Amino acid sequence: SEVKRLAEDFIIHNPASYASMAVLEKYFLSEEKADYARISKLLRLMSGKAPGRASLQMLQRRLSGQLNCRTGNKLPAFSAVTVDGKKVNNATIKNHYALITLWATWSSEMSDPMRAQRSVLRQYLDSIRIINISLDADTTETLRRVRADSIPGYMICDRMSWQSPLARTFGVRYLPTNILVDRSGRIIGRDLNDTDLPLELEKAFKH
Hints:
With about 210 residues, the chain is of the alpha/beta class. Helix content is about 45%, strand content about 15%. It has 2 domains: about 1-70, no CATH class; about 80-205, Glutaredoxin (3-Layer(aba) Sandwich), CATH 3.40.30.10. The strands form 2 sheets. It has a 5-stranded mixed β-sheet.
């Protein structure tokens, strides 16, 4: 949009200004589907002009997960154990398409998206690895929902909620969050809604 173009121009011409951080927060970071490639470029520019600024360093640390785990990048290294004791890591999905979903039973947005996702995935179950990461504080409700909704795939719940290393690694801002990975381990989509997910899956499996 014109407003975002003007906001970007302001940051480009005033990279050392504290006002540029406010502009970045308001016009780029507050979006539900933030453009992390664009944000990364602007952050590099700002950091180059104000390398010692503590507030900018804190912002970079806060965004590290989102920036590392954005579309086009390789999936970051991760390791976890499922609720039934199986080890899951990057090797689990090597040479496979994979969908990683982070969710929680307490999320008010949870039920319908997961049911819609299950319906979409039904035709791809033999061709895709599914990893579900619950941010619940215990496994009781997680397992109840998994059984009730017949949610397929590996199920992980480390009971650390938002403090989970997996939440940081995968750059979770809200729930549910999903990450679609191709056979080479590259992220080809994230934060896909009920409309975008089937389109991205169809596109992926045409190749």
